[in-house]
Amino acid sequence: MAGTMQKRGRGRRVTGILALAFILVGLYFALIEAPPDAYQGEVQRIMYVHIPSILTAYLSFFIVFIGSCLFLWKREKRDDILARSAAEIGVLFTSLTIIEGSIWGKPTWGVWWTWDARLTLTAILLLIFVGYLMLRSLIEDENRGAVCSAVVGVIGFLDIPLIHMSVYWWRTLHQPPSILRPDKLPWENVHPSMLIALAVNFAAFILLYFYLLSLRFRVGEMEEEVKTLKLYGGAS
Amino acid sequence: MELLKQTLWVLWKDLLLELRRRESILAMFFFGTLLLFVFHFAFEIPAEKAAEMAPGLLWLAFLFTGTLGLTQLFQAERENHCLDALLLSPMDRASLYLAKVFFNLFLMLLIELVVFPLFWVLFNLAFWNLLPSLFLVAFLGTIGFCVLGTLFSAVTLKARARELLLPLILFPLMIPVILATVRGMEIILRTGKFEEAFSWLRLLIGFDVIFFTVGFLIFEWVIEA
To answer: For A159, which of B168, B173, B179 is closest by C-beta distance?
Structure first.
């Protein structure tokens, strides 16, 4: 037990150091190496963190879904801790994405927020998983809280395609596709160093994500240990 | 068959309780009517704009009254540990879910049957002939609201501040239903043709089927936890 803990602790530290290194290299590529965008100028550089953070958030909600399914199926505390940890970090990255998007949107579109399909979807995702975390903190019974939030985790994820479809129709049935499409990158004439900057930052975010996830997971495990110790007066 | 019989028994119990006490239905009805007055004071809707705003306002009224009903849905079971007794009985948990869905659906449809014409009268709307097709859209939306709402009513059953928590979790998940019903009704009102709203109706039916299945399968774990 202690051996695997040590090994996991070392793995975590290595991931953390790697994440830091990738972030520094990514920042260099994003801020210095890559040329400014031909149309948007320097503001476009925020995309190097914006795209990785939303992709990491999606990954996180997928892990919530997997953890929730596993917990409902096998009822192992471990899966519940995983789902909860992923939900917390997912909410963090989604909020970051929205803030970064706003900072980019103000000089580019002239507004902080617009009811574009993609923006709306991101905001709804944030609301769903904030609800998930609130439910978690408001149910006192441990086991019941875990089951109920797992249900929200599963349904929240299943609802994403439906929400996506409905907000997309809502925006495209009523107005023609406009310039307000943050997803449309002109891939064909992108500078190679821009692509490298994006790739390095993406790797950095994934590493950072798994570092945070394993840290949060460890905290969850320790909380459980403390609870057991309290319950049995240190006998176990 | 057994499932259906058990469902009918639980539904009968709920209907009888409601008939004797008339708590939910009266509160929901007056709240729904009250909302129409609030909307009028808040927007002071001119007659020519009323048709444009009707779908959104109507659906807001249903959403709020429906949430009111959902928070009361398991009230009878909360008192005197009745839920434990119900779970001890040799009953399929899915039948409890079905009965609660039908009960809430029944209440909301009753309210809608009154609030729809009342809206038309209060805001001087023409085209009464569109009312049945609009009602059908609202019906599909209400099913979606009830299948997911009943499940989350059970999820928040033993949480602190559950009346606050329920809409907080339910409303973001209800976005497809809200969008589809409001847009569907708006299209019907604008074009006068039922066929135009088909794509939204398909989305609604998809939502209803998916979350009815999920709720039916998952409810057992939630109520027993």
So the answer is: B173
Q: B180 and A166 in contact by Cβ < 8 A?
A: yes
pTM here is 0.87
DSSP type of residue A41: B
What residue ranges do the domains of chain A occupy? 50-177+191-232
Cα-trace Rg, chain A: 20
How many whole angstroms separate alpha carbon A93 and alpha carbon A97?
Answer: 6
Q: What is this model's ipTM? A: 0.87
**CB spacing of A134 vs B211 below 8 angstroms:** no
At A40 the three-state DSSP class reads coil
> Strands (DSSP E) along A40-184, which ranges?
none
Distance CA B52, CA B37 (A): 17
Q: Which residue has the tokens 């596709």?
A: A177
Model pLDDT for residues A57-105, shown as the tens digit of each residue: 999 999 999 999 999 999 999 999 999 999 999 999 999 999 999 998 8
Q: What is the spatial distance between Cα B114 and Cα B91, in angstroms, rounded to a whole number?
A: 35
Q: For residue A166, what is the enclosing H or E element?
A: helix A142-172
